[in-house]
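User: What would this chain look like folded?
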Amino acid sequence: MPADFSCADVYPQSAAFFGAMGAASALIFANLGSSYGTAKAGIGLAHLGIIHADRIMRGIVPVVMAGILGIYGMIVAVIINGGLAKTGDVKAYPSAAGYIHFGAGLSAGLSSLAAGLAIGIVGDTSVRAYGKQEKIFVAMVLMLIFAEALGLYGLIIALLMNGTASSVMTYECIPATSQ
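Assistant: Here's the prediction, encoded as structure tokens.
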């Protein structure tokens, strides 16, 4: 370890805090996006059920796609937590890994939040339109796929960042000797 850094500099207690905040951010923001998308698209689905009850099973697509966003956040949170848990010791989790895990959690969480907003708005409007014109279904699914891709991009980047955090160089702490 470089002579001008102490173990407290490389392995501060705040590193685990940032890692845990990354896991929490991934889950919280992804679930916010998922719940908004589900609620907003569900309103349109209820409207579709009044107009054309026979089309509900095809109209449920936006609700299912919004629910997947919460899974993205859970995947990232579990992976980040695994990185925190495998060290088992605060002095084995470097600050760089904590910051990278925090960024990974924000990447997945905020991307899923944005995707949930898009899915909710597109889903509500498209399902209502599907109630009036059956030919809109393919266009609805295409719009929802592109909205869902936003969350998938965040998940991919979070997984790549987690790989980077796992390869952060660690140093063995040697107690300072008094001379």
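The chain has a mean pLDDT of 89. If you want, I can go into more detail on any region.
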